[in-house]
Structure formats: structure tokens, C-alpha cells
Amino acid sequence: MTALTVATLTLDAGGPREAIVQVSALTGGRTLVAVGPDGASYPELRDRVYAGITNSGLSWPDRNIIISFAPLGLWPVHPSSDLAVAAAVLAAAGHIQFTALSEAMFFGEVGLDGAVRPVPETLALVAAAAEREYRTVVVPAANARQAMLVPGVRVIGVNTLSELLTWATVGTEPAPPGPGQDHAMGTAGQAEPDLPPLPAWMQPTRFALEVAAAGRHHLGVTAAPELPVRLIGQYLRSLVPDLDDRHAVEVSALHAAAGYPVDALIRRPPLQVSGPKTSVTSMLGGKRPGLVSLAHRGVLLLHNAPDFAPEVLHALRQPLDRRIVQLARARGTTTVAADVQLIVTSRPCPCPATHSTSSGCSTPERRRYRNQLRAISDRLDIVAIIEATAGEATAGESTATLTARVVAARAAAAARWAPEGFSTNAEITKDVLRRPSFRIPASATEPLRRLLDAGQLSVQAYGRVLRLAWTVSDLRGARSPDRDAVDSAIELYNPRRYTS
Fold this sequence. Notes:
Blueprint: E1 2-12, E2 15-27, E3 32-35, H1 43-54, E4 63-70, H2 82-92, E5 104-106, E6 109-110, E7 116-117, H3 122-131, E8 136-140, H4 144-147, E9 154-158, H5 161-170, H6 206-215, E10 219-223, H7 231-238, H8 245-257, E11 271-274, H9 280-284, H10 291-294, E12 299-302, H11 310-315, H12 317-322, E13 324-329, E14 332-337, E15 341-346, H13 363-371, H14 374-377, E16 382-386, H15 399-417, H16 430-434, H17 442-453, H18 459-475, H19 483-493
Parallel strand pairs: 3-4, 5-8, 8-9, 10-15, 10-16, 11-12, 12-15
Antiparallel strand pairs: 1-2, 2-4, 6-7, 13-14
Helix pairs in contact: 1-2, 3-8, 6-7, 6-15, 6-18, 15-18, 17-19, 18-19
């Protein structure tokens, strides 16, 4: 009897999960059996692999070959595991030496004709293999360019099982695809636009944009409907630094899983703009990542947010708080990354017509309109009200100057919070803020305590203002927030927004 094991990764509800393919070959007979926890759980996998091998012109040995997965509770087995199973079966059948398989991981779906078909999650699987210190991966040739985006991994791209056999026996590697050029991208296939200086109507919010970008704080903007407030997302993204290697791979993998062509790492934080017709499924995702996951490590802008369905806004609470999306499925819970910076735009009142911020709507109508944001309004760190109408650009600091200051502030925050496991001010927990080394002097927080005692500020809002104060301090190059930084943070948070 011959028995061997091959390590692989399969995709289950929690993402890439390590699994062991166990293959045993018994003399006598010519069968292939895939054994699961119920005794026969993988007939589709068995049939695909058997047909793929025999239709590739390879002879089937006089052996009974049994396949099993460990852990036994693993279900369902993702089609990306087909190639690992086929490689193990070929080794058990004596076609290739097992030593050729022991140092590699295999990802790909095997067709009935022996073709190795692409899987959209290849980039995420290869990144997970690299984290587990595997340095060679065998993937479908169609996914090879994506797999090559993961640093430090040798990629073997195969079109068929015959090419896999040639590589494993002779050592001849298929011709690699032309390497993709690593460049700055926004969403897949979209380059970062060359933005002009801030327009006149946006100048009053310049400081709010700068603070939001530096601390990665959620931002709410109220403006007259004639103003192109969607541009705020582009300007905010233009101020933030590129993604590092790890985050770029995360973002690129999500876009690839959603079906976007990704031939280079996405270095620019993505921007996703959503309108009131967006459904819960479009926002959170289903079989593919939703908008909130496609905005991972970037910006999600909700345009005219009070007009969104209440269930959509409520569904965003989880990703805003936990930075993930969890979706209940029949066989478990699917978890997808969704660490976003939120921008919420709204009109001054329910009227859709073009007008300035002064309107004929009654105060109760305006309040009802604002209350439609109740599900997420307490997650907004900054609220900006734009009262100016569009006009010519005014003199002011260039976008490059603002960007340099934001990058410096982010670097200062990352260095300070690194020992605590954080990188931006918006992430800091209450426990860290309470520590003596990070506690702001009572003389600086005195205005905050007055608002708290008067009931104009909640305990949660108190913490958000403190985080804003740290960002204001970082932009000014100070070691810690002073009274002026706290006053600026209070003005940015604007507790009066609840009564307007």
C-alpha cells in the first residue's frame, strides 16, 4: 500500500483554510474514491479528477485510489483544491515522484478534459500560502500573472494536467506570462486622476478633509444639491499615501475575487461611490465581495445617504465597527474584509431640486430627513456643512502640500501606536486613550467635560473627539494635543448636528 499527503488551501466561510489531501493506493482494481465525513461527500471532485486524468491520455493503474481530506469536517471542498488532488493522485498512481510535490501548493479547478481552469480567488489563496511560508505555487496559467503579484513566491502556471506532469517529472516550466507592471491604481483598471486645486466651494472644508485623511476618520458632508459633492471622495483619496505591499495584496485579491481584471497590485486606496438604489446584497456582497469590501483600505462614499433604504444603512454598522462583513450561510458564516473610511453626503433638506442651503422645508421635515441617518450618524467623526456655491478656485495650499502634511501626520501616528497594534488615530480604543502615557491633560479637555456634563456629548462621542484631537496635533507636528487641538476637534465633530 502507498500513502501520501499534500498540503493545500481551500476556501470556506472564514476564508483560506489549510487542508491536507490524503491519498492511499491499494493494489487490485481500478477505482477512485473520494471519502468525506459521510462516507461519500465528494463525488463531483472524484469524477472531475478521474475524467481529467484519463482524458489527458494518462493510463489508470491497476490500483484502488482513495482520497480523503483532513480535517474530516471540511465541507464543502472548494474547486480550487482540484489541482492538489489531481497532483496527489498522479503521484499515488506512479506517474510522478512525490518529492516534486512536497514543497509546493496547488490551486486550480480541473476540467473533464484535463484543462486547469482559473479560479477568481487565486490571488487570495497564493497570498495565504505565502503567509504560511510556501515559496512555490502551481496555479492555472490564466491566474499566473495575478499570482506573481505576491512577493517572494515562485509561480508555475499550467494550462493542463499534462503540463503539470511535465513540470513535475522533467522540471520544464511552462512559459511564464509577461509580468504585470506594478503601478498606482484606484479601483481595478482605473488610474488615479490628476486633480486640480480644491474648488472654491470646497475650500471651507479643506481642514475637515485634511483631518479626515490624516486620521482616517469617517466624514459627513451636507451641501446644496447643485454642488458635485462626489468629488470629495476623489480629493480625500488624493491626500492619502499608497498602500503598502500587504494591504495592496489584500485589496487586489478582493477585486480579483469580484471578477475585475487585476494585472498589477492596486497601490492607490480604492474609492467606491454608492447611490440610494443600492441594495443590502450589493453593499455587503453575496457570492462575490460587495461594495463595502471593494472599498477595503480605501473610501466608501454614500451619495445622498438619507435616501438610502434603512436596512442598508443599518447593515453598514457591522463593517464600520468590526472592519469585516459577516454573512450567514447554510453551512456557516462567510467573513470578508471591509475596513473602509466612510463619507456620507446629504442635502440640507428633503427637497431634491437645485437650491442653496436655505429652503422652504419646515424644521420638523428637516429633522425627519436628518433622522434617517440615525443608524450610522454616531459613527461619523467629522461633520462639514458647505454653504458656499460653486465658483472659481481660490488661492490656497496645493493638493501636494496637503498630501505631504497628511503623510507626515499618518507616519507620526503609526509610529506612536505601533506598539499598541494600531496605525491610525481612528482605530484607537478607549482603553489606550485612558492610559497615563496617552491621557490628554485635564486643562486641555475641560471644554469636553463641560459638554459631557451638560448632556451635549455622549461618552462614545467624547472618545471620538479625543481621537480627532490627536490627528489635529499630528498635523501641527506637536507631541500631544493641547487645548487648541481639543477645541478644533470639538468644532469638527460638531455636537450641534443632532439638534439641527
